[in-house]
Amino acid sequence: MEKIKQFKPLLGAGLCLVSLSACQTTGQTNPIYDKIPGKMQASVKERQNPELEENFLTKFLDGIDFKGDLAKKDYKFSKDVKALKQKEKSLGLTGNRQDFEKAVLRLHDESSLVGPGYDYLKKYINRVANKLLQHYSEAHIDPPVTFLITDKNYYTARMSTFNLLTLPTGTLLNIASEDELAAILAHEMSHSIFRHMNSEVWEKLAAKGVRSGLYTLGALISNKLGVDATATGIVTSLIDDPVSDYYTNVLAYEHKREDELEADLLAVDMLYNAGYNWNSVLTYIKKVSAQTPHNEAEETAKGWFHSYAFSHPSGKVRYQNAKYYIQKEYRREMINLPRLKIDAYQRHVFQGVGFKAIERRLYFNQARLAFEKKDLKTAEQKIRLSLRGKVNDPDSTIRLLFYKIRKAQGKNNKAIKNLEIAANGPEPTYEVFDILLREYENIKMWDKAIVAHKLAKRKFPISETSYMATLIKYQVMARKDKDALYTLQACENNRQNTKENKRMFHTCQFSFNDAMAEREGRKNMTASET
């Protein structure tokens, strides 16, 4: 105990240094407009995040292993890369990672809306995006941006790691001009231009480096003092918890917050270059900030540390950052500020082919509200209007609601038909298959369950273990014992390869035995009832 007491001043000093560092780095997130020498577009190359490839540092850090509870905090770069490749392979992809990201979106029940109206809107959005990129010579986005329109009611947009830009219908309904649309697209494409998506891997590696250094330091100090292994663990955990928390919630998030500020400023430059009203960036920031709970009052109420556990800066900071940047760099140009292109946006989105897609969502929302009020007659009328008389329209969102309406009406066969139409469409969500398979199980349509399960595997990154085990169950229940044994043999053939394959074999074996017992139990129960 005396030696532990000797360590306390060192530990206290270390924590004081961490606290001082926190004070220097935290407080209020500051705008960055005054740190940029000239326009943001001139600083893009030096501010880009390079893609991380395997090198001496990644191999060195991968070679460090944490044991016990600490293994949960471990990060392996090579394992991360390998996991992505395995997921892509499971989908049968050949290098098109956007297809993988689309499948992941559908797995989380967020699919791209389809149909002539949506195709028209996507072409319009693509023209605006190309106009922004054509007038900015330094822009290089690889792979090229692909646009998806999804059925969400909020005002936002999201750029994925591999440049899949998602725009909800709620955003399109709340945009007032083509300039505002350009501001949203420019902000999201700026993330790709700066390669902000690469920063997460760097942050994970840096966190492991910090943690490895802390544990090495703790072990050296404890060894110097002659402290036993248990005390060493206590000492290192006392250092690790606050420092790791500080790194994760403050330093890493500080980089993400600065990424948002950078994207706002580059968006201003891109709008100016393309002839759009660059003040629309301020309009976009106001709207997107108005619907988020992140604000200064909440930060003050919950304390300074909580205020920095946000990946985005507050709306006030973002607005000030963009506003002062515009005043600094575009003061003289303000006299020639372009008029808002309101008519152009209204013509494309709220008239003609584009409006048919918007109108469809409005009918769908009316049907959803009627269903929630248990007004099934109105719900059916509105959902039919949203389908526009197309009997085989595969829209997953509409078909799922129609399924629920039919179930509430007691029309089970018609309810299942809606799921089957959606499942065979180009953009089904995983929820469609999840419910459809449960319906097939309830009515013991095992042959159809096998077909639907195989189709789901082709469309989603379902784990091989889960897929094989469920397939065996359906094959046994359908009395396709030869097929079930063949699938079980396929599991056994991979048994020796890895721990994961060994687990898969045991799961498949259990599924086979359990399904056989369930089938025979049903058979015996039926015989006794007779």
From TrEMBL:
Entry keywords, A to Z: Hydrolase, Metal-binding, Metalloprotease, Protease, Signal, Zinc
One matching Pfam family: Peptidase_M48
A GO cellular component entry from the record: membrane
Cofactor: Zn(2+)
GO molecular function: metal ion binding; metalloendopeptidase activity
Signal peptide as annotated in the record: 1-24
Database matches in InterPro entries: Mito/Outer_Membr_Metalloprot (IPR051156), Peptidase_M48 (IPR001915)
Residues of the Peptidase M48 domain: 167-324
Gene3D superfamilies reported in the protein's UniProt record: Metalloproteases ('zincins'), catalytic domain (3.30.2010.10)
PROSITE patterns to which the protein is assigned, alphabetical: PROKAR_LIPOPROTEIN
GO biological process per UniProt: proteolysis involved in protein catabolic process
Protein name, per record: Peptidase M48 domain-containing protein
